[in-house]
Amino acid sequence: MIRTYLTPIMVALGTFIVLAFLGTVPWAIYQYRKHGYLNFWRNFMIFSFIFYGLTAFFLVSLPFPETRHNAPLLQGTGVQLNPLHFLQTFQQVPGFDWRASNTYPLLIKSFTFLEVFFNVLLLVPLGVYIRYFVKKISRWYWALLGGFGTSLFFEVSQITAFFGYFDHPYRYFDTVDLVMNTTGTLLGFFVAPLFLFFIPNREELQVHDEKYRPNQLASYGAQLIDVWLSLSVASFLAHLPFHTGLVAIDRLLWGFLLVVIMPLFFKGRTLGGLVVRIRLQPVDQAKTFISPLFLRYLLIFLPGAFVEFTQLINTKQTMNKSLVVIQVTLSIVVFLMYAMITIDILRKWLKKYPEPYFNQYPKVEAVRYAKKKKSKN
After folding, report:
1. What pLDDT score does 261 carry?
2. Is 121:134 a contact under the CB 8 Å cutoff?
3. Which end of the chain is least crowded, N or C, by CB within 10 Å?
4. Average pLDDT of span 341-353
């Protein structure tokens, strides 16, 4: 029985990992454009809800028939319309008697009872999520409608043979499931405070959002995405047909265009900055902007150029001891350089520094800007 529930959960986990992998970057960009930063609790609620939804769907849908041309159900029409039918099935549990309390453990241990119990439990988390979004207990009817609608979707998918994909329904449409699923959603809605007490409510999240309003310093993560996008685009452009023949040189040229020339002509906006809505400006407004931008460019692109140079040296096969020492030394330097960069970025991120090293040392600020609203004539 455990395997019956474990398999759908593992399938849901695998599906979730694939979706998360494909959607993480677009989702992060959307969050940075809208809020200016990635909030842990906001993302926890959304990603956990997606995982829960996948798990619930697969629990009621799997296992699928081995072929699309499946055989009809053995008994009846595939529809059970008595919402109290579970009471009759309880009476059929061997050894159980409503009037004898000592037989109730037999009922609780039976598959018949556990099936009903898990149908209640299935949508309890849905009630918790609904309570988080609607907040007020007086809006319990949202849990009623949400639970009933979700359960009805599950049942319809079964009676329609997974919306016509299979030749015949492979599970019954059971009104007992509708009642139990809806009951579970309502139960989750009313007990939600027991699970949500440690999670900031939506109003508290909005207060935190105020720290990243337009004209304020961009979040650390947004600054990293800005540079990551510039590096990625420069690397992509360096492999296009029109190039100098050396990828490293082309990457440096495109990088110079993207992180030095472009901000000078587009009011501090880089290509990555246009995506996450941040612009660059010098800390000292009285000084020229090109020197900080050029130093920033060197900090971003020179490590990659040094790696290209090291790889070029290491491609030479030689028995010359001096060259071998140089190759090993350069490899160690590359490793240490990227280790220091990684440690510095993570350390400052965890300690909530305002900017990464590539903006800190050139004295460049990355600030958020708002989308211009179209004027109404």
Report:
1. 94
2. no
3. C
4. 91
pLDDT of residue 118: 92
Length of the chain: 377
| Alpha helices for the chain (secondary structure H) | 2-34, 40-61, 85-91, 104-109, 111-122, 124-134, 140-159, 161-164, 175-191, 193-196, 202-209, 220-237, 247-256, 262-265, 271-276, 290-314, 321-350, 357-360
Token look-up 């072929």 returns 67
Tens of pLDDT, residue by residue over 5-15, are 667 777 777 88
CA angle centred on 16, ends 13 and 134, rounded to 5°: 105
Record the tokens describing residue 133, joined without a space: 């979004």
Nearest alpha carbon to residue 32 among 280, 217, 221, 205: 221
pLDDT number for residue 372: 62
Residue 116 has pLDDT above 60, yes or no: yes
Angle at 166 between CA 164 and CA 172, to 5 degrees: 85
Residue 7 CA to residue 93 CA, distance in Å, equals 27
Q: Tell me the per-residue pLDDT of 145-180, one tens digit each, with 9 for 90 and over.
A: 999 999 999 999 988 888 889 988 888 899 999 999
Instruction: Answer for the pair 165, 119: CB distance below 8 angstroms, yes or no.
Output: no
